[in-house]
Design a protein that fits this description.
77 residues; transmembrane helix; membrane; mainly alpha
């Protein structure tokens, strides 16, 4: 990736839009991908139970955070 705003970051952000953490995985950041995926989908799963419906809001926040993080990633170089 050549930096923020690069085509790779746009693709990564689009990937994270569909599945949280997938954009980080595309960028090669495995730990970040696992963390975003788990944070988002655990909250969505708890919300789907119906009893903990309020957990959808933190899930949505983590999902948006994953998208923004993938779009703004600058790389290690």
């Amino acid at each position: 990736m050549s930096g923020q705003g690069s085509g790779g970051n746009v693709i990564a952000a689009i990937c994270s839009f569909f599945i949280a953490g997938l954009g980080q995985l595309v960028q090669g950041r495995i730990l970040a991908a696992i963390v975003f995926f788990l944070l988002t989908w655990v909250n969505y799963t708890l919300a789907a139970t119906g009893i903990l419906f309020f957990m959808a809001l933190p899930g949505f926040i983590f999902h948006v955070w994953a998208i923004i993080d993938a779009a703004r990633y600058k790389g290690s170089s």
